Amino acid sequence: MQQTLPRWFAHRGGGSLAPENTLAGIRLAARLGFRAVEFDVMLSVDGTPVLIHDETLDRTTNGGGHVCETPDDILFRLDAGGGEHIPRFAEAAALCRKYGLLANVEIKPAAGQEVQTATVVAQLTAALWQGAAVPPLLSSFSLEALEIARDLAPDIRRGVLFDSVPADWLAEMHRLRAFSLHCDAKLLSDEVLAEAQAASVPVLCYTVNAPEQAKMLLQRGVSALFTDRLDLFVSEAGVGQGLP
């Protein structure tokens, strides 16, 4: 299993340079030399895991309504930007394996669908990346989803997502047998970072789009950053190098 993390993750596939959560974004990130991508996975009404961030279709497609209430035959005819379709999770996984990308798969359950979404995504992740040279990383804001992933796909590393990191974060990490802490870059305290470093827990921060902020976070000891601005960081030391 790959032990080091690339320094940069392309947020939602290709960041701001491509329609978010699309295959075009993943291809672009790979072409620019990024070695890691992040994307969100939710279920359609038919139970198919697809790449999309919002619970509704309105912002990122030419459709409308809730993803979890939309059947596949409608969902996959929608335009997700620039003529791109909403990808199936399996399509994104195949592309990441083809390009050797580390995929941060965020389990993104619609309200009330934590168990179903986590069950499908965890089991499919284990199957899709079986024997992969670069294994994926599962993350979620839903601790319930991560608990299910821990039990159903114990060999897949897990990242715990917080906006503001709570006082008991390390206890939750231990309970979930998680690998990494993911949090809002603006809300990361020196105390939490020191605790993480003492416990050898990698800290990954979102969403970092300014060079000065990135430099400061890396100097403080943050392990990796999620960015929308692939264009600003493509030439940064570490992109494509897998530096710790």
Describe this entry's structure for a reader.
- With 244 residues, the chain is an alpha/beta fold.
- The protein has a domain of 167 residues: Phosphatidylinositol (PI) phosphodiesterase (TIM Barrel, Alpha-Beta Barrel), CATH 3.20.20.190.
- Helix content is 33%, strand content 18%.
- The chain contains nine helices and nine strands.
- Strands 1-9-8-7-6-5-4-2-3 form a nine-stranded mixed beta sheet.
- Strand 2 and strand 3 form a beta hairpin.
- The longest helix is centred in the middle third of the chain and has 15 residues.
- It is globular and about 50 Å long.
End-to-end separation in angstroms reads 15 Å
Beta content: 15-25%
What's the name of the CATH homologous superfamily of the domain at 8-39 and 99-233?
A: Phosphatidylinositol (PI) phosphodiesterase
Which structural class matches the secondary elements? alpha/beta
**Which regions have little confidence, pLDDT < 50, spanning 5+ residues?**
240-244
Helix residue percentage:
25-40%
CATH level 1 name of the domain at 8-39 and 99-233: Alpha Beta
Please state the average pLDDT score: 95
- Following the backbone from N to C, one meets helices and strands in this order, namely EHEEHHEHEHEHEHEHEH
CATH topology descriptor of the domain at 8-39 and 99-233: TIM Barrel
Q: Do you know the CATH architecture of the domain at 8-39 and 99-233? A: Alpha-Beta Barrel
Largest sheet: 9 strands, mixed
Radius of gyration: 17 Å
